[in-house]
Amino acid sequence: MNPPIRSVVIVGGGTAGWMAAAAAARFLNDGQRTITLIESEAIGTVGVGEATIPPIRGFNARIGLDEASFLRATGGTPKLGIEFVGWGALDERYMHPFGTVGHEIEGLNFHQLWLRLRDRAEIGSYGDYAIAAVAARAGRFAPPAGDPRSPTGQLDYAYHFDAGLYAALLRGHAEAQGVTRIEGRITGVERDARGHVAAVRLEGDRRVAGELFLDCTGFRSLLLGETMGVAFEDWSHWLPCDRAIALPTARQGPLLPYTRATAHDAGWQWRIPLQHRTGNGHVYASAFTDDETAERVLMANLDAAPTAEPRRLSFRAGRRTKLWAGNVVALGLAGGFLEPLESTSIHLIQDGISKLFALFPDQGFGTVERDEYNRLMGDQYAAIRDFIILHYAATRRDDTPFWRHVGTMALPETLIRKLALFREKGRIFRYDDELFTVPSWVAVLLGQGIVPSGYDPIVDALDADRVAGALRQMRRGYAAAAAAMPALG
Ligand code: FAD
């Protein structure tokens, strides 16, 4: 039997590194294991990433962060979903809300019941049955409360926050629980006879040895990519956006409890409301526009004055073919990148950490845990990729070369299958533990203007007028529950 792993070395101190450190301090710190984090202030972090999805609340709770102090420390605000403007067609907008939408009747899917009756004027839109969407549109928010099937119990939410402040908060938390931080640039990596990373060398002739290495070095992927030689699988033929300009502005008007993603000629713009400022950024495809035009478009679409200089970023959509090789596990940008359209990157860090802990290689590095980790994470990346591609593929826009390209490009086979099933009878299946739920897929598909030609005939088993009555009641319930919530301010 191999001896248990006694030293964990986290390389990199961005959001990924400090999330891993805080979680390791909470769950791996048995008094006999050392947890060390190495970061270089001179290199710095990517410095963006402000919108999240609901599972972040579970992560914060598990590592022991109190919500009120977390929101204070990070300038955080609640997020009920994402509003997409100009995606299906130039003059359209829709909300992808968090939480469930409607509820089933006698075990039959809500969206199928809605599809059957949607032509009746009294039924309203699919979004009328999502408490998060109704509350978001009214600028109102209250945490979920009551029976999970009640309108307020069906609500789910995430946060917008300042990622730099979040990393600082996590750092304090992790250091207080015994994580050792080492400042310095890594200049070399030593490997043992098996090819595992044995130690990293730092400027100033220092050396840090370890048994398990978490590569959180950002786009550089110093250990997994550069040292272990794990290839990058490029997905830019499906997701051509490869640049961003980020620019904070002064807070303007009342806080909105949602992120906004506005489509432009060759990409899209995010708007993320924080307590003390608004985060903005233009994500665009360099094959379809140039940096100066992209900056002009961003400047022309701000709702307040900038409070800093623009920050320019370059990236490529895709992921490493394995996220765990030898004794190296990559978390965050070191493992892959998907544009922030559905705010999934920080979630992928969290998911990577929790899967790693679930498969922790406590007695050495067998292939069983490693292969399972790579399979699970690979599936998760691919499912999120398909969901993001959907926003482009399901456009009816053809007004610019960019939209003509994404609207006609070849799609992954997995997405083709999902689209075909939905187009016919509105059927959607969620595979394994894929992140986005059926209501999320339906909200985006319908929001982009894909209306199925039929519905699942199984819902004909219920009396139409009885279902209509139940839907009317549900809809009234969501409207009343949202109206009773306080305005966000
Ligand atoms: P980084 O922040 O780059 O950190 C890398 C760390 O490694 C740094 O500490 C650096 O000093 C260290 N390092 C690197 N090389 C060395 C070396 N040689 N020696 C020592 N240390 C080293 N995610 C979301 O969830 N929501 C969003 O809204 C969102 N928006 C985004 C917008 C854009 C334009 C981009 C590009 C990303 C966005 N993301 C978003 C992703 C998010 O920013 C990242 O997932 C997150 O910040 C994690 O980054 P990281 O810690 O992996 O890398």
From TrEMBL:
Origin superkingdom: Bacteria
Protein's recorded name: Tryptophan halogenase family protein
SUPFAM superfamilies (UniProt xref): FAD/NAD(P)-binding domain
InterPro entries, per database record: FAD/NAD-bd_sf, Flavin-dep_Halogenase_NPB, Flavin_halogenase, Trp_halogen
